[in-house]
């Protein structure tokens, strides 16, 4: 009986020990699984490829994005500056062209006014010279020329020379001086004309030339 009681106590002790070991093993296994499932943070422990990729995305992603945005902003700024410079250059060129055109127009206008002024002065001078000449004397001197040149000065002398009417007083005066000097022989009438003007003075030639120009 005493021996049986001892064996029963030993059996109970073994059962308690087995239960304790089983409980300890379950708790260890649960702790291991919990440790495995716990998420890893950047820089803590050794990460696998997936963890490294995720960590890189979290740790370096913001920096890369900021760098790209800064580069794009700088590129846009350069483009805007270039466009501004081109626009400014275009406006400057247009302004210079406009000023140059205005300056040329002003010069042309002044030149035209100067030419008109010179023409007016020349006409006035010619009128003054003609008015100073006694046209009555010129008419009287032309009487001996009318036989060949016509009373109105529109006849071609000997059918060869040009009509004296309509020619300028200066040209006619030059021609008459040439005939008188014997240096002009237009249409072979140099000798004839020299005889006609040989007795004329410079004042007579001026007067008859002025009269013929007015025919």
From TrEMBL:
Gene3D superfamilies: Cytochrome c-like domain. Residues 133-215 form the Cytochrome c domain. Residues 1-28 form the signal peptide. PROSITE patterns: CYTC, PROKAR_LIPOPROTEIN. Keywords: Heme, Iron, Metal-binding, Signal. This is Cytochrome C553 (Soluble cytochrome f). SUPFAM superfamilies: Cytochrome c (SSF46626). It comes from the Bacteria. Coiled coil: none annotated. The lineage of its organism: Bacteria, Pseudomonadati, Campylobacterota, Epsilonproteobacteria, Campylobacterales. One of its GO terms (molecular function) is heme binding.
